[in-house]
Amino acid sequence: xxxxxxxxxxxxxxxxxxxxxxxxxxxxxxxxxxxxxxxxxxxxxxxxxxxxxxxxxxxxxxxxxxxxxxxxxxxxxxxxxxxxxxxxxxxxxxxxxxxxxxxxxxxxxxxxxxxxxxxxxxxxxxxxxxxxxxxxxxxxxxxxxxxxxxxxxxxxxxxxxxxxxxxxxxxxxxxxxxxxxxxxxxxxxxxxxxxxxxxxxxxxxxxxxxxxxxxxxxxxxxxxxxxxxxxxxxxxxxxxxxxxxxxxxxxxxxxxxxxxxxxxxxxxxxxxxxxxxxxxxxxxxxxxxxxxxxxxxxxxxxxxxxxxxxxxxxxxxxxxxxxxxxxxxxxxxxxxxxxxxxxxxxxxxxxxxxxxxxxxxxxxxxxxxxxxxxxxxxxxxxxxxxxxxxxxxxxxxxxxxxxxxxxxxxxxxxxxxxxxxxxxxxxxxxxxxxxxxxxxxxxxxxxxxxxxxxxxxxxxxxxxxxxxxxxxx
Length: 473
Known about the structure:
- Helix content is about 45%, strand content about 15%.
- Strands 9-8-7-6-10-11-12 form a seven-stranded mixed β-sheet. It has a five-stranded mixed β-sheet with strand order 1-2-4-3-5.
- Helix 10 (about 335-345) links the parallel strand 11 and strand 12.
- The chain folds into two domains: about 35-185, Leucine Dehydrogenase, chain A, domain 1 (Rossmann fold, 3-Layer(aba) Sandwich), CATH 3.40.50.10860; about 190-380 and about 415-450, 3-Layer(aba) Sandwich (Rossmann fold), CATH 3.40.50.720.
- It is α/β, with parallel strands linked by helices.
- It has 16 helices and twelve strands.
């Protein structure tokens, strides 16, 4: 957070928590416990660089809550990493996991480096040393704390972490479950890459299927024909755009840091992505109009706006000019608290980040379960389902004397593969979470917005966990 802001990121999370806490039944002491960060590990360690000099690396791991174990949360490599940010993100992970019924406590890690300033070998040494520091203090393990990728990290770093952990814990049979977001060959799960964008789609689609909500916003039911604007063409923005387009929405504008493009007839995210790869910019895309500033896209008229890039892009200053009916927070914290108040007063629905972008942690949970069960999803039942479906289809065709088309036959016969089961589990998770939040909001009209309703949902689940554990008899 920049120095001009009057409070820290962690403090702003606490403010949202306090706003929601008044709509819950929990005693003040228990609310204080839910809010607090349980364990904070701040470390410094030396790493020898390629040129022979030694650099002292600053790093963190925060375990916000152990009401359920293990703790879960990504590791980011960024120059902006500090203890306050890691604490805030760990707290949000606690609430996110609670809302989507993933049985983890919240955690988060960070290493204060710019990954682009280091060679691959230097990054490997930093990552492995960080992992060994976590092992020393019992801050990592399949039943203790399970990291994942975040800004500046990916499959490669997760592979280094699992390898280091396994070498320090020989013979631990569930060692692969010490981290998620791994390459598939190292125990990762299929469907992880598109998980967050697909979760964003499932969450907003469920909101758009609710007649009373759509009526209040003056929109038709369903995502078909909706005009969508996506800010950010990274992994989350790209996949969000893809799934909306494939289900009949029109992507009328895409924004990136170099600018934004607009086409009322609709854009294809893959074509835009390839154009950017070839030219270095999304601008001058054939058939589209360039917008003067990247932020102009946020203020263009549309039905659904999806900020999928940076924190705080919509604030008290530009929020009054936003014309979307629904804002789906695909990024972490794209709206400031001031923007929330503007949208609540204008009747614009904000679908909050703390559950909408939970696709990543949901699929991480599936990966962790896969690691603990030591079997790939679908391996046991795929062929059985295909054989059974083929038999049923043959019987029906024989009895009716009619046959189905080849494409229909292929669809009906299909037994679930790992990616099908992962997508199906994610769909179930997002639909259930959306309905739970909306029920809470409907039951208490004094709750000002969907974000507060989501916090109420999270606080109630964590509070129930604490009392059922008997910690507060």
